[in-house]
Amino acid sequence: MLLYKRPFAFFTPASLDFFCSLAFLKTAFLPFLQSSSHRRAADKALRYPMAVGLNKGHKVTKNVSKPRHSRRRGCLTKHTKFVRDMIREVCGFAPYERRAMELLKVSKDKRALKFIKKRVSTHIRAKRKREELSNVLAAMRKATKKD
Q1: What is the pLDDT of residue 48?
Q2: How the protein assembles, per its UniProt entry (predicted)?
Q3: What is the spatial distance between Cα 88 and Cα 76, in angstroms, rounded to a whole number?
Q4: Helices (H), ranges, 34-147
Q5: Cα dihedral 133→139→141→144 (10° resolution)
């Protein structure tokens, strides 16, 4: 049995490049390497692109369902907004809100947040309250500018 040190010693370098190219290997050897069942699966994959994977299976149209009533929790209604505005107009601001507004006036946003957080107990509520108070201050500035 003959063992060559270089398996393609009888090819020239140019022909070696051609034979080792990916295109040649695909065209020349792939049909022989694949069994008939593999070839059938390859044909099927071309005809039905969604046969495997995340979106596989029979295509159907989805039913459009109404959003659940429980999803609307926390949404601001017209009535609630009206009641809150009325209370704000009649009662004004709480003492801690007035102090926070003073801090916001002198650009101490971080200090105001820490102060409000101590009063309303959570960081998210404090951020929301600070945003609300800064919006009130902006509206007041806008109103004084108009006059």
Answers
A1: 53
A2: Component of the large ribosomal subunit.
A3: 16
A4: 36-47, 78-91, 95-105, 109-120, 123-146
A5: -140
For residue 52, the model assigns a pLDDT of 78
Q: Does residue 10 surpass a pLDDT of 60?
A: no
Which amino acid belongs to residue 79?
Answer: H
Longest pairwise C-alpha distance within the chain: 106
Most confident of 18-32, 62-76, 106-120: 106-120
Whose tokens are 């009649």? That residue is 90
| Type of residue numbered 88 | R
Prediction pTM value: 0.53
